[in-house]
Fold each of these.
Amino acid sequence: MSAGASLWSVRTVAIQANQVLEIIWIVWLMSWVGASFWSDRAQKRATTMETWTYRAAMIAGGILLVPWIGQLLEKKPIWEVGHAAMYVLAAVMLAGLSLTWWARIYLGPLWSSMITRKRDHKIIDTGPYAFVRHPIYCGLIIALLATAVAEGRLGALLGSVLVILGVWQKARTEERFLVTELGREIYGAYCRRVPMLIPFLSRRR
């Protein structure tokens, strides 16, 4: 095999590996939007300035994470990721997104894209909710970090940081809302048992 053919083969594999990440995100996003209809009607919604702040951070970060946006803003990535490492990162990303779906299924119709209280709202503390209070956000953070490392661009890194900050702020806002709606004694006890975003972290005392 000639040097030119060998180089073409390596680039082809690398491109295919990169496309795997994009396909996983597209499939996840389509399935997530489709499942949004599996949700009970909200009885009350959280409406504060913080809701607009975390949404703005997540939207801006999401835009920066789009591959062609990164290529438009930056000619060259900060680092190159080999095809083997790209598949490893794809597996990590898939694991994170699988965690979001595991948690979504456990929530069932109690899930909402916004911070709400549903009829017969209750604390779910089994399955993924037994080791982290916000497993959907935890899974997203894992997937976002893997994506940013795979892209190797400053824009992608900044985008992932913005989305993660938005997710963290949403989680904090959601917890204050649930403490008010469900009671500090009930939700506070759950907070003391289970960490917020990082599994197996020391529990709040």
Amino acid sequence: MTNEELFAKLEAGDESVRELIVVQNRPLITMCVKRFPNFKDPVINYEELFACGEVGLVKAMNAYRLEKGIMFSTYAVKCIANEMRMAIRHFHKHEHTYSLNDLVGEEISFIDTIVDERSNVERDILNRSVLDSAVKALVHLNPREREVMELIIQSRGTIEQWKIAKQIGLSQPQVSRIIRRAQKKLETICR
């Protein structure tokens, strides 16, 4: 049976042809996966891409209208490819998601690096000595670098570059370059 005949039956109320439509059009998914440039992507594998293609095929089947005069296979290929593109975007967007149990060192996990916010005398002394060293090193920076670094220190490193840029009348890329330059100078001074 052709797709058009199956859809005529489906529109007549025969729901049993749904599975036949999916099975008969699975080769379209395989064709789309092979044509897709990222099917060997390390983030999303062939099976996941194929499963996304099946979702696209079902969506195409649910949205297809025979009276539009378009062949189902043409419409389905567009839906399948679109679903695969959305899946790849989603996987790439979330590929840098980490677990608290992931290792950041040989034996240290992210959860081990979480700092207890209660007062810790050793931490306070270390922070003060680092801050004192940083303040002393700031005198070696030019006035613009010093201004930017002082804003960062005053905010305890929480201020965003665009806010600094707005505050001192520069663009964010300029602030980024100033920070990089100042950090290099401070690294050489503190060695």
Amino acid sequence: MPLPSHQSHANSTTQTTYAASQRVRSETGDLTEPRQQQGAEPSEADLIQRAKLGDAEAFQALYDKHKRRVYSLCLRMTANTAEAEDLAQEAFLQLYRKIATFRGESAFSTWLHRLSVNVVLMHLRKKSLPSVSLEEMTQGGEEESPKKDFGADDVALAGSIDRMQLQRAVESLPPGYRMIFVLHDIEGYEHNEIAKIAGCSIGNSKSQLHKARMKLRDLLKMNRAEKAGKSRVG
């Protein structure tokens, strides 16, 4: 028995709507599923493997992910924006050449960090910038005593110091002091790691760090004295 015309039209509309919904579902997937399954970003491990095979887009993604940290490291070690930009670019050129040698024995960020540090150190050596030799031992009143560890935390520098003031003071350090201070107190390297990177002994690394902290303390005292003098004049 044929259906009334209005019922036939309703059934036809329902079938059409159902078919359309099935097409949308097949194209977009179940909307109740997590969205990341539809367009998940590739993992860093995947990007690294693709970059090893010469995938330019994968290398660009790694560059975009790590460029700020590499530039910041170069800037802290050189205190020069132009040099930092050049050295960051050089670090990524080295990465492009050497990424195939990355074996995953450490985090990729750690490996890239060390590569970048080495690029900066090579630059400093070529320019003969370290005015304070890494092989210089402490003498006189700075001689190490058995109970004192120059690598211990410096409470005097750990107080509340204006960040910009501290940054300017670090930039004012002699390059040799600044390098050790940045590697140990900012980047978190241990003295045995710094010794390998910089080509000096552990004792020399501790000595340079101690001198850097003493120099920083003097610079910060001078800055505070200058501010106090200006405030009195004002």
Amino acid sequence: MKAYLFLLLPTLFLSSVGMAPLHAQQAVSLQQQMGKAEFDRAGLNKLSPTELQHLQQWLALHASDLAATIPASEETSATAAAAKSPGPFAHKPKAAKVKRNDTITSRIAGEFHGWQHGTTLTLQNGQRWRVKDDSSLTVPESLTSPVVFVKPGFLGSWLLRVQGYNTSARVEPAN
């Protein structure tokens, strides 16, 4: 929980203050962004005002670096996960190289019977992926929450594979 919160703090902070002028950014407190309950649960209410101010300044300077360390599997939107690693030949802005796990590992939410063109698969992490090629997979018996891997392909495409099967499908984010 603490590791997740450590990664979430900078994302929340930047998303709300990223476009505000500097003097307005300083007026926004971390507690306002997180809400009192989350702020207290993270133990940030134990910090002195000076310590809290220092933390907010540090987060403002380093939040983009921290946000880049969130594995694609933890994104709740397939679009956000796909944006983290658009593939080897897609346009990528120049930035410092950050080692991250581009393969998304999750499970199908509920029963899995297979796929065909147009099937939308919902993962337990909240991501939804739509099959966009003509591949198909029919499993002999329905599977309950099988493990799936979604990894970047060429030219910005994504490939989804169910553990235990050699067939993969080219997919696109559906949420």
